[in-house]
Hints:
The complex is a heterodimer of chains A (616) and B (197). With 616 residues, chain A is α/β, with parallel strands linked by helices. In chain A, 38% of the residues lie in helices and 16% in strands. Chain B is α/β, with parallel strands linked by helices and 197 residues long. Chain B has one domain: Pyruvate-ferredoxin oxidoreductase, PFOR, domain III (Pyruvate-ferredoxin Oxidoreductase, domain 3), CATH 3.40.920. In chain B, β5, α3 and β6 (127-131) form a beta-alpha-beta unit. Classes of the chains: A alpha/beta (616), B alpha/beta (197). Chains A and B meet through β1, β8, α11 and α14 of A and α1, β2, α2 and α3 of B.
Amino acid sequence: MNIKEVLTADKNEELFLLGNEATVRGALESGVGLASTYPGTPSSEIGDVFSKIAADAGMYFEFSTNEKVAVEVAAAAAVSGVRSFTFMKHVGVNVASDSLMSIAYTSVEGGMVILSADDPSMFSSQNEQDNRHYARLANIPVVEPANPHEIKDLMKYSYELSEEFKIPVMMRTTTRVSHMRGKVKTGAVKEGLTKGFFKRDPKRFVPVPSTAMIMHKNLVEKMQKIKEVTNSSPLNQIFRNKGKIGVVTSGGAFNYVMDVVKENNLEVDVLKITLSYPFPDKLLLEFMEDLDTLMVIEEVDPIMEGEVLSIIGQNGLEKTVHGKLDSTMPMIYEYSPNIIISAFEKLLGNKFNLKDNSGSNIQIPERPPTLCPGCPHRSAYYTVKKAASSLELKDVIYPTDIGCYTLGITSPYNAADYLLSMGSSIGTSCGFSKATNQSVVSFIGDSTFFHAGIPPLINAVHNKDRFVLVILDNRTTAMTGGQPHPGLPVDGMGWEAPEVSIENIVKAAGVKFIRKINPMNIKKSLETFKEALEFDGVAVVISQYPCMLIKTTRRDKAFLEVKKDKCDNCAVCLEELACTAIYRDEEGFVQIDPKLCNGCNVCVQLCPERAIGIKK
Amino acid sequence: MKSYNIYISGVGGQGIIKTSTVIGEAAMKSGLPVVMSEVHGMAQRGGSVSTELKVGDAYSPIIEYGSADLLISFEPVEALRAIPKINKETYVIVNKSPIYPFNLRESEVSYPGISEIIDELRKKSLKVFCLDADKIARESGHPLSMNMVMLGGAVAVNGFPLKKEAVLRSMNANLPEKSLDINLKAFENGFNKVRSE
């Protein structure tokens, strides 16, 4: 299908949508007037779709500078009566959390939904934090969809709930739900407000101690009322199977439970929790009335399990509860059908009739992700390392940041030594500069620099730190699929936009050493890095070359090849550059794979024998 | 309907998600229930990638160990990595062109020989089809049509739950117009290759 069908499909059509695409359709069917995000997997495709259809839909969408800004943009729309939607990966909520806590206090007028895309098993993340904790911290309701169709319908439901109680609603997905594709039956697209009116009311919108005291009281009362909704809503659903035990589950884990129960005809009752906070206590009591044994199956933390135990305790009941806390279920990582099967086998005491599978005894190499062939980060890493070794610098520390360039962790680059979060490369460089005598070379991407790199850079200048900061400016937000950022002449709507200059920001922060390089030019880059490493202060090198995945970057491929008569097998290209397109064939010759080579010419420059050239 | 389970494995950038989407949408348009799981993000950067589809009644697309009805592997070692998902009756279509992991020279494990890989697959499944899909793709007009060679091969196996015409319609709806002819040719060549074996 054409992705525009997310907007143009009439009602009652069937679309085969990714969870993230269904999210957009849900927003459109809810009359959302404003949407904002900072890209982050597993939520990235939501923004990609918005940026393609927002103009046609007559709504506003932006890639905000970071998640805190995104949630603030959406909050302002919501208090002005415009339905707003903000979405981000789980760790993005950490960035947004400062304002999020207050949005719950100040309440909303137009509906507001915050989608947190959690990443159990860390497919693309630095951790697998369970953001249902945030909903408890902020005291806002949570909905947990299990598939694309539910996402779409729950978007509509969430806006109604949000407006009824004037409270932001968190939709919590997991990678397997965001990236699940399935049939979605469309409803009608609704035209919503895109411009509202902000009616000033400082008692309601300005949390200072005197007003916040009242806001918190109101919030707690609201949440008590919403508990009546979660207790009575058909979205929290009981499936009876003459159960001897009962399972309480939510989100993607519900899917595994249902498949295992049906496939094996298990006598297991299931309580599907869709509105998971405030937790439906009365519904749980009804569900477990005739059950002595419960199992809670949820990803990632034992949050509902704690709720279940506390309700049992409060009511003085005697029930056995299995889950993570008694080690029936694993405490970490995402679940799978086989994990659920093992848990049921343990609990029900019978072996299921599983398909024979003996596995394989052949050892196979791992295949970790890596930089693309022709990636400008690879040549930057190669050159920085060369510069450091030619100056005989030992024990250089390479703080890194969040993006494709985190893949510098792999050998032979070994250019990622410390990472905490977006922007941490620069902040931690300040610390290393003060707390060690080692040289520090820090890497941050262009989009990440805008997101969280500016305050720590100012910190570095003001506090007279000494390190090299390499801003890897590949003219896009690459890792998440190539979204624009403030440094580009285009915005989230696809409209022309002013480019914010990284160089000017660095200058304005007071950095005295600023150089711009083309990382694909090895010789010049090497000289610049050497100069930077010798500078006493903050030295910024802006390494600018567009990402190879940007379509306009890729030229008609000039296929490179190794000239067998010149190559002496020194393997510099193979071992120091380690481009994925270069390999050693079964006869031991170094070769370039034409289906991978992007013709970037970096290997040509560094070959000591000049043995690499254009294939004739 | 008991679900027909398809596991597709390979390396990021080989067109795995597109192939899976073509199958999934064809299933939906044929009136069958279908769910699919994709991998996006970091893993796509040249790492191992897989998608899972269940055509038929299923809540989750994730395939239980040993329960795949069809394994389509775009790369030989990635077929071995998928072995936990298959059983003796699973149809296996494997592309025999390797992509060597970039870190191979530092890996303690070497890349097995292609014939060793195919022999191992034949021990695990009675129905292995081994194609030189890269070569067939080049002959069809473009190396990147390899995924459609594999799709054609998959559609040709006994028990594949969708009609060939439904898959062709889905290719029309999901592939860029300018490369459609090459892709259709690649599909037919893959289809005929498996049918002839």
